[in-house]
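The methods section describes the discrete structure representation at length, but only in general terms. An entry of this sort, consisting of the sequence and the corresponding backbone structure tokens, reads as follows.
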Amino acid sequence: MSTPHDPAVRRRGDEYLVLPEEIETFRREGWVHLRGVLSEEELRPIEATYMAFLRREHAVPGKDYCDMSGDYHRSIEDYDVLNVMLPTRYLPQWSGNLYERRAASIARQIQGAGLALDYDQLLAKPPGKPAAVFAWHQDSAYWPDTPDPRTATVWMALDDSLRENGCMRFVSGSQKEPKLRAHRPLHGDREKSHTLVAAVDEAQDRVEYAEIRRGDVTVHDERVAHGSGGNPSARWRRAYIVAFRSHATIAAERAMGFTHSHNDPIEVLERVGYAAAEKRGR
């Protein structure tokens, strides 16, 4: 007998039913795990396009295909975390795919009406990459300050994502802290890499590992501290991310020239970084 917790029951065309207790978990912890958002059959065409991007069969210029754990000057063979920013910008016919539509329904249930897709991203850790660490950070540190900060970042696993291959991890409840944590550029400046690193004490903070299965998602808030470990395993750890924010916030970002592209001019990133520093009260 099926139950409301059965993913097959919760998938309804373009919709996925989020339960009240899951919305409460998101409010309390800053993130939530939702099971079986896409079935195996639904995942296969998504996976085919995803891998075509990783193989560079779809052209992605400049820094929008980069290594998020290292610097922009490495050869692709040395990448630890393969990062493709804004894939639907470079393959417009992929826009509005089933995952994107179902994620939009999740975002609406968790964060309310008036949201739109702000950006999409592919993040993949190849096998045997113990250095494929995605640094601790809060998304707000990358973004401009706007009056409506509602965010639902939906992170889907294309592989079982476990501690052994570098699953997501969160400092649960950190979204409730009054100020953003201090962040620093991973390599000293953002010309070499956009990556920022937040101050997290893994011995003292309430770190939780989000071990999820293929087709599952996590959804997180813009202020919750999160990151992921390396992948020394023999398996991939591939993720497909879509982030939803309010129409007003997206309009404000674009007016600043901020598009979430890693090809954005450095002066735009510096202006956004200043706004984030102001939010930290520094």
About this structure: Residues 191 and 253 are 20 Å apart (CA to CA). Residues 57-279 form a domain with the Jelly Rolls fold (CATH 2.60.120.620). The longest helix spans residues 40-54.
